[in-house]
């Protein structure tokens, strides 16, 4: 969990801000998964913080949803690029609660204002797709 949150800090995903009034604040939750090797032995535990996107309000937190369709060639490129696209920039003002167990003791009533998309947000697929497309264009893949 600490590793996941440190990655958010390194990638400048959010900013801790005072809780705005009259704004939808989206909750967060932790998703845990055991990663295994080819023999089925657990090699490490993965924690991922995701936004509770089902609480988003259309027209306020997002304008539209998006589901990109990938070709086999695109999948191969993605595997070589790894996580370059995992934090696409978002255009909307989106606020999320501080993760449970990791509330800032100095500012317990503050929330995070997102600069980049998190898993679970309605606009995350479009943000990631736009970032990936930009990366591929800039590096001559397309």
Summarize the structure in words.
The protein is α+β, with helices and mostly antiparallel strands and 142 residues long. The protein has one domain (2-138). Helices cover 24% and strands 22% of the residues. It contains three helices and six strands; from the N terminus they run αββββαββα. The protein has helices at 2-10, 72-81, 124-138; strands at residues 14-17, 25-26, 28-36, 42-51, 95-96, 111-114. The strands form two sheets. Strands 1-6-5-2 form a four-stranded mixed sheet, with no helix packed on it. Strands 3-4 form a two-stranded antiparallel sheet. β3 and β4 form a beta hairpin. The longest helix is centred in the C-terminal third of the chain and has 15 residues, at 124-138. The chain is globular and about 45 Å long.
Number of strands: 6
Q: Given the helix and strand composition, which structural class is it?
A: alpha+beta
Terminal residue distance: 36 Å
| Spatial arrangement of strands, main beta sheet | 1-6-5-2
Largest sheet: number of strands, sense, barrel closure: 4 strands, mixed
Domain Reverse transcriptase Ty1/copia-type: 11-141
Pfam family, one: RVT_2
Protein name: Reverse transcriptase Ty1/copia-type domain-containing protein
InterPro entries: RVT_2
Topology of helices and strands:
Elements: H1 2-10, E1 14-17, E2 25-26, E3 28-36, E4 42-51, H2 72-81, E5 95-96, E6 111-114, H3 124-138
Parallel strand pairs: 2-5
Antiparallel strand pairs: 1-6, 3-4, 5-6
């Amino acid at each position: 969990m600490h590793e996941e949150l440190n990655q958010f800090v390194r990638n400048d995903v959010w900013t801790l801000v005072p809780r705005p009034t009259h704004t939808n604040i989206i909750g967060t939750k932790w998703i845990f998964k055991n990663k295994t090797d080819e023999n089925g032995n657990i090699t490490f535990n993965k924690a991922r913080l995701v936004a509770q996107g089902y609480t988003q309000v259309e027209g306020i937190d997002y304008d539209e949803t998006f589901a990109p369709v990938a070709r086999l060639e695109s999948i191969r490129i993605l595997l070589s690029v790894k996580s370059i696209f995992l934090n696409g920039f978002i255009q909307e003002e989106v606020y999320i609660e501080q993760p449970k167990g990791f509330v800032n003791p100095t500012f317990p009533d503050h929330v995070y204002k997102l600069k980049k998309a998190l898993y679970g947000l309605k606009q995350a697929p479009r943000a990631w797709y736009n970032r990936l497309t930009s990366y591929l264009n800039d590096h001559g893949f397309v």
